[in-house]
Amino acid sequence: MAVDTAAPPAVPNTHAPLPQARRAPRRTSDRHPWSSRVIVNGLLAAVALYTLMPLSWLLVNATKSNGDLFGRPGFLFGEFHLFTNIAELFAHQDGIFGRWLANTLLYSVVGALASTLVSLLAGYAFATYDFAGKEKVYGLVLLGILVPHTVISLPMYLLASQVGLVNSYWAVLIPGLVNPFGVYLARVFAEGYVPGETLEAARMDGAGELRTFRSVALPMMAPAFVTLFLFSFTASWNNFFLPLVMLNDSSLYPVALGLFSWNAVLPQQPQLYAFVITGSLVSVLPLVVAFLVLQRHWRSGLTAGAVK
Amino acid sequence: MRPALSSARPDRPRLPVERGPALEGASPMASPRPGLGRRAAPVLFLAPFLSLFLATLVAPIGYAVWMSLFREQAASGLGFGGTETLFVGLDNYLRALADPGFRRGFAHIALYCAVYIPVMVGGALTLALLVDSALARAKRFFQLAYFLPHAVPGLIAAIIWGFLYTPGLSPVIDFLSGFGADWEPLGPDAVLFSMANAATWQWIGYNMVIFYAALQAVPRETLEAAVVDGAGQLRTAWSVKLPMIRSSVVLTMLFTAVGAIQLFNEPEVLRSRSSAISSDWSPVMFIYQAAFTDHDYGLAAAGSLLLAALGAVLSFVVTKLGNRWKEA
């Protein structure tokens, strides 16, 4: 922890700088008045209701037909129409929704794998080697974290159009490979997980640098790999502005852009309501499941990135 | 560099010195060493990232600076004969700054930040302190429930909230009108709060988890000392826990502010339902419109750089304030 510079040394009964006048009657630490327990847990439950309400609304309303959406609003169930909705969703416009899902998978899985590898290589190099100007280059990379992405999308579009990459898979994939925050995390992880002595031992055994990385360092950084992969995966799954700028051809759209294009014409084409709602559910569900399954790795990434 | 980021080093676990896994085929006698040498290695390892970094981050910024100094103009007054590119110096910046739409956009995001950042960061902090307190039950469940919205992509979150703001679909509007409250979430007075709410919903749990993890790292002894000294739960939270996680709080404020000035998804999605949102409602929307509707690339580039400059100023101010808070 870098934050606990103000912490007193770990001596029990140290007098923390609290005014004596505040001394409250002692009570055993696990016995609190039930009223404050009810207030605290009641508050927490109310916020949980707030965070869970929109997704449950989505779940309930994906089961309704277009007519029931407005006829039986809110959390009232209508006729159970979920599977019909899904079938119609995937059939609409020659199955373009399935195509969008496949594109999204391509952008996020392939993109995240490549991006993770690129970040790990760079982070490992920053952690392991000394070379001239290292910290300057690293500082530049950290500055890259703060560059607003929407700001560089337009010049990136113009540059991409000059090299003929606009409106192609590459236009979305290549910019997604660069993740300065990933390099930062990879460096933190590499410094934590890969002891210099182990690398030295591998070198003494005659392994080249590339081999040392592949056979010794990479396996040791496996948890970092998962965390970084999750970060890049959600970043590209979340990326909306770049595809919006780069892609014209709707068959290249990721699912968010596709749903956006349907959502934008809802006032003119209300028959799309059920598709947008069911489509949102279908595209959110894999992420929710992945998140629940991989919780531990999310947390380790968050804490490595933010607490230290 | 930014101390909050670069001072970050994990406590390096002191693993026992172990021999590397046996590397079959790597002869200990081999000299010169096979494979990559130690001097060339960092160059090779950094090459993929740095070349991409240059191509997709540094080059676009440089190109934006270049573009912002030029203006495309019809070669003849009648619009025949294509366009010519004129060097106009800082004229694009002046045009952007004088544009009432662009200025309104900044006013909008200023108000948006004033609403969103205190509510979201303060809310996340409160939740983290509550869950960390001895009074909370079901801590794992609450963390899960709060974090779950973050698994929803931002654009889809905006679409879902768009439905929840639509009369006839929304259970919230129905619920409130049951009490006689007339709530128009997409009306001119409320729409900014509705956007802030959608963003808060998405980010409050994420930041709560970050704060909670930081709180977990506060040494037990410190908290026990506070209890021995007679501090109650509230007092401990305010005077002991909060000061100890301030670097997390500052970092979160920084990322939140940089994200908030790029506001685009929520207004762009809600625009199809609300007449209160113009097509240049936020600065990024203004830039998008200048570039892709008006094809005024000079203006768009100048606007982008002005926004980036604001981001840089914000980062600087937040970091400075954060440092002062740390020293206090």
From TrEMBL, chain A:
Residues 101-294 form the ABC transmembrane type-1 domain. PROSITE patterns: ABC_TM1. Keywords: Cell membrane, Membrane, Transmembrane, Transmembrane helix, Transport. The keyword Secreted does not apply. Gene3D superfamilies: MetI-like. The chain crosses the membrane at residues 38-60, 105-126, 138-158, 170-194, 215-234, 240-260, 272-294. InterPro entries: MetI-like (IPR000515), MetI-like_sf (IPR035906). Belongs to the binding-protein-dependent transport system permease family. This is Carbohydrate ABC transporter permease. It comes from Streptomyces himalayensis subsp. himalayensis. The lineage of its organism: Bacteria, Bacillati, Actinomycetota, Actinomycetes, Kitasatosporales.
